[in-house]
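Long-time lurker, first post. I've been practising inverse folding by hand and with some scripts of my own, and I keep getting stuck on stretches where the structure tokens seem ambiguous. Below is the full token string for one chain I'm working on. Before anyone asks, I'm not after the true native sequence, just a reasonable design that respects the backbone. If someone could post their per-position residues I'd love to compare against what I wrote down in my notebook.
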């Protein structure tokens, strides 16, 4: 445990906390805090910034002014002396709060700030505060990302396609990455950004021909503002050209591709009851897509894009007990197998009306995945 704290301390130090406690750790901090070091170039920002940046600005509200209630220091149980860990945390959080306060713009979403200051380890930068906020509000991020996608709508001419490249082709092309787009083979260009499995949510704005460029979210297509925020709270009028995604959308994306990582939130939402049997959820309960993803690919593919995302999000997710899930998967595997046999038969004799659909199998999927 002690080494863990030290590691965390080193990481905090590497994040350039100018406090004495970080001296023992990273060498990067030494350069900044050690009195032995001469000051050729490093200290410049610290000395020049206040002189030229501060006077024209209007005074920013302090953390205590923004959130009076949360400014009170935390206190342990009465009578007990603080442990070394809590002393360390207090010192670390004081430094983090100071750093956050310094870099916080006058306008900043209050719920995010409230969340940041209530963390056991206060995030030291506004961006980390925003990321932490969404990480802890995963279902809200899911809803927001889908709402933003709905605002963008399906790009003209887009259809949900999967990459047909083999992994070898892909590896070959990766070596050429970083070179001019013209250097990419035609096949590579056409397939740029395409997922190789229907387990991945379709993302038109990640695909070459539909990408909206800098300052726009590659997941939802909407403009991205400071700190990966989705609304222009600062009235800049232009998106942040260095940003390629919203903090909320990245969180949602992670949720969509690995919902099992968030079984706790989903269980809580269901009142710890199995969505199929109504019985109490056991520890081994699993996350399941109500409508299995292979059926989305097979039957619902033509639905408009933002609507499709709902199949990866909360509306299509449920937590069920393992035995129930196993039965459901077995039934789905049987159904898939019979469809496959039928199409194989039909392909052997008469062609289907829509050969794409019968042929379009996900190369990476396995039987039993729901
Ligand atoms: Zn987005």
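-- Answer (accepted) --
I ran through it position by position. Result:
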């Amino acid at each position: 445990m002690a080494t863990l704290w030290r590691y965390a301390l080193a990481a905090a130090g590497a994040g350039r906390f100018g406090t004495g406690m970080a001296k023992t750790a990273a060498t990067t901090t030494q350069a900044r805090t050690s009195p032995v070091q001469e000051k050729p170039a490093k200290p410049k920002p610290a000395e020049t910034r206040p002189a030229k940046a501060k006077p024209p600005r209007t005074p920013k509200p302090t953390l205590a002014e923004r959130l009076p209630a949360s400014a009170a220091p935390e206190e342990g149980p009465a009578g007990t002396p603080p442990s070394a860990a809590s002393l360390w945390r207090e010192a670390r959080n004081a430094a983090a709060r100071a750093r956050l306060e310094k870099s916080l713009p006058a306008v900043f979403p209050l719920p995010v700030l409230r969340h940041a200051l209530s963390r056991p380890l206060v995030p030291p930068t506004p961006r980390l505060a925003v990321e932490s906020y969404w990480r802890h509000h995963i279902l809200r991020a899911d809803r927001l990302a889908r709402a933003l996608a709905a605002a963008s709508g399906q790009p003209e001419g887009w259809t949900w396609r999967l990459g047909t490249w083999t992994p070898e082709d892909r590896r070959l092309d990766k070596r050429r990455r970083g070179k001019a787009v013209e250097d990419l083979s035609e096949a590579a260009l056409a397939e740029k950004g395409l997922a190789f499995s229907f387990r991945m949510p379709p993302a038109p704005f990640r695909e070459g021909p539909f990408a909206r460029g800098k300052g726009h979210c590659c997941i939802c297509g909407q403009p991205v503002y400071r700190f990966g925020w989705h609304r222009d709270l600062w009235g800049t009028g232009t998106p942040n050209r260095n940003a390629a995604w919203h903090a909320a959308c990245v969180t949602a994306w992670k949720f969509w591709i690995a919902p099992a990582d968030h079984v706790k939130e989903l269980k809580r939402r269901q009142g710890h009851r199995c969505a199929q049997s109504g019985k109490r959820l056991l520890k081994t309960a699993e996350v399941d897509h109500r409508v299995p993803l292979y059926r989305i690919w097979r039957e619902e593919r033509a639905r408009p894009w933002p609507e499709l995302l709902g199949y990866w999000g909360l509306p299509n997710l449920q937590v069920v007990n393992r035995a129930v899930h196993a039965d459901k998967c077995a039934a789905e595997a049987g159904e898939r197998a019979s469809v496959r046999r039928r199409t194989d038969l039909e392909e052997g004799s008469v062609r289907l009306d829509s050969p794409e659909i019968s042929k379009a199998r996900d190369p990476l999927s396995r039987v039993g995945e729901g």
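A couple of notes from the structure itself: The pocket of zinc ion is lined by residues 145, 148, 217, 219-220, 222, 245-246, 249 (CB under 6 Å). The CA atoms of residues 150 and 306 lie 5 Å apart. Happy to go over any region you disagree with.
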